[in-house]
Amino acid sequence: MLGLILALPVLVGLALAQAATAPVVDLGYAKYRGFYSPEYDQNIFNGIRYAAPPVGKLRWQLPQPPSWDRSQIFPAVDYAPQCPQSPSSPGPLPAVPSGDEDCLFLNVIAPANKKWLPVLVWIHGGGYGLGNNNYANFMPQVHTNGNSYVVVSIAYRLGAFGFLASADVKKNGVLNAAIHDMRFALLWIKQNIYRFGGDPLRVTISGESAGGGSVMMLAMANGGLEGDLLFQGLIPSSPYLPTQWRYDDTWPTLSYQTFVEQAGCSNAKSAFQCLQSADTIVLQNASAIASSMSVHAQWAFIPVTDGTLIRKRPSEQLLVDKRVNGRRVLTGNNGNEGPFFTSQNVTSEGAFVDFVLTNYPRLSSRNVTSVLELYAVPENVSGIYADSDGVTAPFSTTNSNWAVGWQQAANNLYAEATFVCPSYWLADAYGAGLLRSAWKYQYSPPISSHGADVGPVTEDPTVRGTGLDAAFRTAFQQTWGNFVVRGDPTLSAAQVSGAGRGDVAAAAAGSWPRWGGRPESDFMLNLNMTGGMPVVTRQLVDGKTLELTSYVPSVDGSHPELKAAFSLASGWSWEGGRGKRCQLWADLGRWALL
Q: Where is the Carboxylesterase type B domain (predicted)?
């Protein structure tokens, strides 16, 4: 007891000292106190409000500025509540409440004692219905790149709260409310990031999956006629492109009606006003139920063509108009994007056609014939379960770590139409412009599933016990950092030599060319590994247990050393002609709604 009494003044003094040194930022409308990370020499601010609570009469309206409150210094140590969650079909439904509608907050990572640094904005994924801005920790990546930029991660309205669409919503509110949230956050950055040491004139927006899709939507916003007003660079990773309906098409209208019914507003004089006044628990449950009734592994509430903010489909605006905001793009995809989103019961050509029409119901029989010409599985297909190297057969069109035959054809078709080809189209849009530039990569280490790249590009490269060596992760993170800081992802000679035993030279300046926007000049960087000891893990996908092979360092030296192996490849001829398949989806865009 005496020891505790004697230690008390020391503990109090330590707490006071930490409070005195904790960074404080004055935003005008409020003050926030973050914390200092001595490990990374960074100031961290979590849970900063960038917009007023979008509740009550502000539901499905444009985001509004926060109210002023200078009565105290608000703590910015803990994360803010996540936005309400909506699952993909068939669920399971989340426990309600799954979040808080008052969720328009952002987090800032700012290197200490530095000013006018470039800014990287992170937009989280999750199918536009799940996720939050708290799960991806960019502190190690910033440190890997010499604490040379600021990172801001933003939250946005999800599910029905962010993407409710119908003629009724257009009449009474705003469509694509969540994309307006993102733009509002970018305006906040424009006005306030200098207070954290950031430069509002050097902003790169990034995201993975629906976050990458959001980056694509922001690139297309207002017809792509905004120039670099809000951002200059873009890093869309696996940009998610579900079917993009018009706001008043049958599918978004049915989803709206289901939401209204589940919220108990069907018989109200004004369904929209009823929704605005409904209890949040009722609405969260209604959003989750309506979303769970979508197509397998899809979400009901997603971006729509609204005629104002989002005026055209991506395949049309990116490839025909080639009008985009910003100056440059670094875009990537993973080797096996499709399995988590694909029914695992496709065993024949008939089942494959059913799968295609379920996901793209407006395709005609002639369209389906065109699809089969490029995706059909030969009768003598190999039964090898192994990931393709992209250059020699068998390709991922028929064989992978995950499946073979018609099942793999379905996995690959969904991957290409939904994640891979949008990445190609973005590269085409920026690569073709005289004043714009593009670079393309693929993340290929087995098992390279959807989202597998997020950890390696953000986490501490020196952490052991993973299937990726430090050289791979460091070089990968440096490509992002170089793009943010100097607008070019290629590695310097010092960065290449620093990789040591890993072969990352293909990413060097002078080796990794810009994407040209033409078949003969569409070169991409393939990020892979070589060597290692094979290990088999089990993964439950759509009720089936799959055995997947990945590689880890050999403990006893009985296997070749696991190390980075970067290489250049033709994006057009990759996997037996991916460029041609992406061109097919562009041609089918008006029916597939891509």
A: 22-515
Local structure of residue 321 (DSSP, 8 states): I
Task: Give CA separation, 221 vs 239, 309, 484, 550, 562, in Å.
Answer: 15, 5, 21, 40, 43
Q: 568-592 pLDDT, tens per residue?
A: 999 999 999 999 999 999 999 999 9
Is residue 266 classed as helix, strand or coil in its secondary structure?
coil
Is residue 9 over pLDDT 50? no
Burial class (CB in 10 A: 0-12, 13-18, 19+), 95: exposed
The alpha-carbon radius of gyration of the chain (Å, integer) is 24
For residue 360, give both structure tokens. Answer: 């793209």
Long-range contact list for 385-392, CB < 8 A, 24+ apart? 385/547, 385/549, 386/549, 387/335, 387/336, 387/444, 387/446, 387/447, 387/448, 388/335, 388/575, 389/528, 390/442, 390/444, 390/526, 390/569, 390/574, 390/575, 391/569, 391/574
DSSP state of 305: B
- Per residue in 424-454, pLDDT (tens digit) is 999 999 998 789 999 999 999 999 999 999 9
**Which residues are CB-neighbours of 453 under 8 A, at least 6 positions away?**
208, 237, 238, 332, 334, 443, 476
Euclidean distance between CA atoms 266 and 259, whole angstroms: 9
Q: Which amino acid type is present at position 259? A: F
- Say which DSSP state 513 is in: P
The DSSP code for 317 is: I
CA–CA separation, 336 vs 411, rounded Å?
8
How many CB atoms neighbour CB 8 within 10 A? 10
Measure the CA–CA gap between 405 and 349, rounded to whole angstroms: 10
Indicate the domain borders of the chain: 25-326, 342-436+444-592
Q: How far apart are the first and last CA of the chain?
A: 70
Q: What's the pTM?
A: 0.95
Residue 466 binned pLDDT confidence (cut-offs 50, 70, 90)? low
Q: Confirm if 275 and 334 have CB atoms less than 8 A apart.
A: no
Bridge partners of residue 358, in order along the sequence: none
Determine the length of the chain: 594
Those residues whose C-beta lies under 8 Å from the C-beta of residue 10, and which sit 6 or more positions away, are none
Half-sphere exposure of 516 (CA within 13 A, CB side): 11
Helix (H, G, I), strand (E, B) or coil at 540: strand
Tell me the one-letter amino acid at 380.
N
Phi, psi of 192 (to 5 degrees): -125, -15
Tokens at 548, concatenated: 């997947």
Place 92 in a pLDDT band, splitting at 50, 70 and 90.
Answer: confident
What are the strands, taking DSSP E only, across 553-594? 563-570
SS (H, E, C) 396-462: CCCECCCCEHHHHHHHHHHHHHHHHHHHHHHHHHHHCCCCCEEEEEEECCCCCECCCCHHHHHCCCC
Cα 493-496-499 angle, rounded to 5 deg: 145
